[in-house]
Design goal:
The complex is a heterodimer of chains A (about 140) and B (about 90). With about 140 residues, chain A is of the alpha+beta class. Chain A is about 35% helix and about 25% strand. Chain A has one domain. In chain B, the strands form two sheets. A five-stranded antiparallel beta sheet of chain B has the order 6-5-2-1-7, with no helix packed on it. A two-stranded antiparallel ribbon of chain B has the order 3-4. The chains are: A alpha+beta (about 140), B mainly beta (about 90).
């Protein structure tokens, strides 16, 4: 077996993987973690927890919201079964989840409403929805 | 580099979002690496006022790593650590 240079290895990987597709916003429900990870823009980010449910990803250069991590999704739907109407064909639009969270907050406790407003805006613009069928079982 | 030469190691994760999604997390290694990397692989200086954190489970597998805001008092530590986020500091 012969050693491969880094450049040759990179070429081989790109040959196998093919050309990268243009970026599209993505929202993915992870059943193991019971969380939705939402990436709106392909920018390096740092994470900032805003409350016990949501961690926001901010772009390193832009300082804009570029994504988020929403945890306790199935717990949320169990605790507030009325919000199951937000789920259509197993999918939920992320801005609806953020709005639902705002409604919950009005029941008690402070919430960073400005950040939530921004999150809702970014989710709307991205047209982001996550398949949460597994969270409803 | 952070795993080889951490500035701080915390044990006992108190927040769900820090835990391993497929089990329990264990330790968090923190520090400021020499470089940060852009999506195209280009290196740049580390992001200012931020610390890099690597989370490890008991199988010694790193399951999550990311930049977070650092503590204004100590730039090698995350803004929140002991006691609100981790049980104890080992290093």
């Amino acid at each position: 077996m012969t050693a491969m240079s880094n450049a040759d290895f990179a070429k081989a990987v790109f040959r196998i993987a093919g050309q990268p597709k243009p970026f599209e916003p993505v929202a993915y429900y992870d059943q193991d973690g019971d969380c939705i990870e939402f990436i709106a823009k392909p920018e390096p980010f740092y994470a900032e927890r805003i409350d016990e449910l949501v961690t926001v990803y901010y772009g390193q250069e832009s300082k804009e919201i570029v994504g988020s991590l929403i945890k306790g999704v199935s717990k949320f739907f169990t605790q507030y079964p009325a919000f199951r109407i937000l789920v259509k064909d197993g999918k939920v639009r992320l801005e609806h989840l953020f709005v639902a969270r705002l409604f919950m907050a009005f029941e008690g406790g402070k919430l960073p409403t400005l950040t939530y407003e921004k999150l809702i805006e970014v989710a709307e613009q991205s047209n982001a929805q996550a398949d949460v069928e597994l969270a409803l079982i | 580099m952070i795993l080889q030469r951490p500035k701080a190691i915390f044990e006992g994760l108190l927040r769900d979002e820090d835990d391993d999604r497929r089990g329990l997390g264990w330790r968090c290694y923190c520090g400021t690496p020499d470089k940060a990397y852009l999506p195209d692989g280009d290196a740049r200086p580390p992001w200012p006022n931020q610390v890099f954190m690597v989370f490890i489970n008991k199988e010694r597998v790193a399951y999550n790593w990311r930049w977070e805001k650092s503590s204004p008092k100590d730039p090698d530590l995350p803004a929140e650590h002991v006691p609100e986020r981790f049980k104890r500091r080992l290093l």
